[in-house]
Amino acid sequence: MSKSLLSLAITATVLSGCSLIPDYQQPQAPVAAQYPQGPAYSPAEAANQAAAEQGWRQFFHDPALQQLIQTALVNNRDLRVAALNIDAYAAQYQIQRADLFPAISATGSGSRQRTPARMSQTGEAAISSQYSATLGVSAYELDLFGRVRSLSEQALQTYFSSEEARRSTQISLVASVANAYLTWQADKELLKLTQDTLAAYEESYRLTSRSNEVGVASALDLSQARTSVENARVQLARYTRQVAQDENSLTLLLGTSIPANLPSAQPLSADLLSELPAGLPSELLQRRPDILAAEHNLKAANASIGAARAAFFPSISLTANAGTLSPDMGGLFKGGSGTWSFAPQINIPIFNAGSLRASLDYSKIQKDINVAQYEKSIQTAFQEVSDGLAARQTYNQQLQAQRDFVNANQDYYRLAERRYRIGVDSNLTFLDAQRSLFSAQQALITDRLAQLTSEVNLYKALGGGWNEQGSQKAEVSKEAPPLKLF
Fold it and tell me: Strand 338-347 to strand 315-326: parallel, antiparallel, or no bridges (unpaired)?
């Protein structure tokens, strides 16, 4: 009996190495080898350091923003959920991988039974006892065709995908905090501009009102001056609301209140961000965590095909136990009380109304779906980076033109004010100059915010935001979680 068990164990070990998982072939990237070229794009430059390796403390220069990002990484609930999901998928992998090993359990039991005289063969009442202690293996499947290993590989790739999802969540969080902070600062600058403009409008209205009282300014001039004041008050209420809402949005991202000891914010016109190298589209395949997550999901779907194929073949499960059996407690471990049982079982699929074939077809379809999703994630990443590169060049040109426009409006405003005060031009020209300058200054702040936001989004699109310092490597572990035997 022992020789046959040994032979069976050796055979099972040899056959358990069999796998029906298809060879994995990485799909070709469905994008061009280079980013778009044209008037909207600056000439390509060699990258000394990939954007993904540039730490967010290097990319963001504002100390206040750096502190906010650090706070969000500690307290944000979405990031906390993503980290817990990794632990959950690690546990699922542990559960699935445990099926590769026999589950051994020890059992002890005892019973005493009284049989009445009329039910006894001897005609006398009898009391019987039975005690047992066994060590056994229950329904252990010999993984002859790799079904269990395929399911284990599927769970492992899902675990790797959750790690990349956590990394993607962090990158998105860093970009979201940065954009929320920049929007907050822009709205505060717009609020300050509106307050200053309203004060200028009110002073102009006061002077026009005096001129109207002495008959120099007409009622129409006074009405037009009042219109400017009321319009500025509307803008003041608007930006006051937006600043408050910006603070609420930032608080949600931080997962806690905005720190009271936040350093003074730098103006939007300051050098807030580092220059980013774009690199090549092929680098996105190794830098973007959403692409890596999609590839791990593809590998998981590929492994599920192996499990579906293995279901067509016979499966063998073993149930065995050995121990002692005795009618009294004292004789439980004496010689001659040994007992054992061995119950192998083989299951051969014969007829299942096509369910196994349908399961295999379903697994193949799921793989095709994951291929399409993987390719779409690459195309999306390519489009986001291309948009960011186009925005970089055109925003530089747009901002310079907008600064020149603001300077021209400031000259127009000074001349119009001087000519109005000396009575050369009407109040209408002066009011038009005021409105034009206010509008141009608002547009300059808005355009600067759009430029900064596009640079932050480009940093995110290139896979940046995972590291705090550039010396750290933007890599996640690709090792299976440790197996816990107990």
Answer: antiparallel
Non-local (6+) Cβ contacts of 305 within 8 A are 20, 21, 22, 150, 360, 363, 364, 367
Give every residue of the chain whose pLDDT is below 70, as ranges. Answer: 1-17, 44-49, 470-477, 483-486
Please, is 323 exposed, middle or buried when counting C-beta atoms within 10 Å of its C-beta (0-12, 13-18, 19+)? buried
Which H helix or E strand runs over 108? strand 104-115
DSSP β-bridge partners for residue 323 = 134, 339
* pLDDT single digits (tens) 380-411: 999 999 999 889 889 989 999 999 999 999 99
- 294 with 156: CB under 8 angstroms? no
Among 412, 481, 483, 401, residue whose Cα is nearest residue 447: 401
Chain length of the chain: 486
* 60 DSSP 8-state letter: B
> Is residue 131 within 8 Å of residue 109, measured between CB atoms?
yes
> Hey, is 127 helix, strand or coil?
strand
Separation CA 273–CA 66 (nearest Å): 12
Structure tokens at 46: 């060699």
Tokens 């008959």 belong to residue: 215
Here the tokens at position 103 are 């589950």
> Measured between alpha carbons, how far is 18 from 269 in angstroms, rounded to an integer?
64
Q: Residue 162, Cβ neighbours under 10 Å: how many?
A: 23
Name the pTM for this structure: 0.85
Whether the Cβ atoms of residue 60 and residue 133 lie closer than 8 Å to each other: no
